Amino acid sequence: MRLTEHPVLHFKRGKEVTIYFEGKPIKAYEGETIAMALHAAGIRVLSYSGEKHRPRGLFCAIGKCSSCLVKVNGIPNVRSCITLVEDGMRIEIQRGKEELPKTAKPPAWKDAPRYEADVVVIGGGPAGLMAAIHAADAGASVILIDEQPMLGGQLVKQTHKFFGKREQFAGVRGVEIARILSDEVKKRENIRVFLETSAVGIFQEGEKKLVTAVRKNTELLEFTGKSLVVATGAMERMISFENNDLPGVYGAGAIQTLMNTYGVKPGEGVLIVGAGNVGLILAYQLIQAGVEVKAIVEAMPKIGGYFVHAAKVRRLGVPILTRHTILRAEGKEKVERAVVAQLDENWKPIPGTEKVFDVDVIALAVGLRPSIELLHQAGCQIKYVRELGGHVVVRDDRMETTVQGIFVAGDSAGIEEATTAMLEGKIAGIAAALKAGVASPEWLKEIRKAQRDLDEFRSGPFGRRVLEGIKKVLVVKE
Question: Per the database record, which ranges form the 2Fe-2S ferredoxin-type domain (predicted)?
């Protein structure tokens, strides 16, 4: 079901087209992805697992898991969540591992076109956008690549207003920040943008960094730069419970993508797992979209998010059950119910406290983990830091990793707020331009200012944990 009214958002849909799912015609609109069009048509099962043939559906909606793989025009392993629809496109459910068509001839790397710049930025979210903008302003030619069909990253789905200082977009909704930063990128003639382009490898080629990528699942590309900023963001965490692989179990970000970016109603009734800021904000956003939130369950003894968010949700009648966890999802091909229970002091479910909720959506707002796969492959030193969300790269105060010329910013450097991602992006972008030898030393003042702003933003109670984590990965270079 597509949303036609929303108190904050207005959905501009492209030209109507027809796609075919399992031979049946489905109405879609140019500019939306396969998964969004199928969800709007009520289709939840996108594939079946190879071993036990269990149904699979959308989970992350950002191309970082394998839950939504489908066959498109005979080609398997297509990520339906980030692949745009095309008129006449034929989509089939993928059943386990499937072979490429015998007629398919993969292109050779030697035939791949090459693009060069002073600085290459991987990732078009808040960190990547700020890195590209400031690297360009510092005098660098910049290539910005992102595997999504639009710039903005997580910002394009955030309808709430940001906290902080005015210069850091306080009081501005995330969707509007995405538009502002995207427009700033477009204004700069020294930034070239490549969308629907997935970076698959980072290599050293002489004095330059070489990024290999695939555009629109078919075209091989190469990008070289004197320095590189990796701002690949994060991916949703999963937790263990019975039937957690059923279609209808989503990461919180996937639900935001469905309703806030593409205007598709995720379901009728939702159980949210996790009462941090993401879970609380998601509850309010679901209510804005006309979806009933049955409850929020939180394993901790108290709510983890800001009081202002929790108060707003409670005023709307949503119960927040602390010291509770989900035991199982129920349903045959998709979620039909969720069973939760209270936890004792040893984090064990208490028999007899089970509650059953009739829902068709279970939203997991249980945190993110940094996407560091490309950084790991490139040889950057990796360290597990619980305070930063998992495995992260070791870096200095200018966001340069242990591999010279490779910088990191945003959630791929550690899970924080969008505001800190933008400040880190600014630092990394300027530092990358300095490393490339195209920025004047005067730009060091801007780095120091951004560092002070970061320290100020992290000075609150929610920042103490992050600061402890940063101490564990920060190296001082001579």
Answer: 15-97
